[in-house]
Design brief:
Blueprint (H helix, E strand, L loop, with lengths): L4 E4 L4 E6 L4 E6 L1 H9 L6 E5 L4 E5 L3 E8 L8 E6 L1
Antiparallel strand pairs: 1-6, 2-5, 2-7, 3-4, 3-6
Length: 84
């Protein structure tokens, strides 16, 4: 499984995601991504988006992983990264 990711050097990193319908769009660091897949408690930026494009931003350094899910939405989205 390929999980989109991007390295943030401490600026504002945004994921702009085009979704076909309401989806959950999350940015997570590595530890929280691992917790997500382990079924443990995790912390994320983002949430449920009804309208496209969804924009989720973080301002902490590190590698950030993009998860988009809600049934079929997993494979039917496009995204780009923006750093300011």
């Amino acid at each position: 499984m390929h999980i989109p990711h991007c390295k943030n050097k401490g600026k504002i990193l945004s994921a702009i995601v085009k979704i076909p319908f309401a989806c959950n769009v999350f940015l997570l660091d590595y530890n929280n991504l691992k917790n997500y897949f382990d079924g443990s408690e995790y912390v994320f930026y983002g949430g449920r988006f009804i309208f496209s494009p969804a924009r989720v931003s973080v301002n902490q350094p590190g590698i950030w992983y993009l998860l988009v899910n809600d049934g079929e939405c997993d494979s039917r989205y496009s995204y780009c990264w923006e750093q300011n």
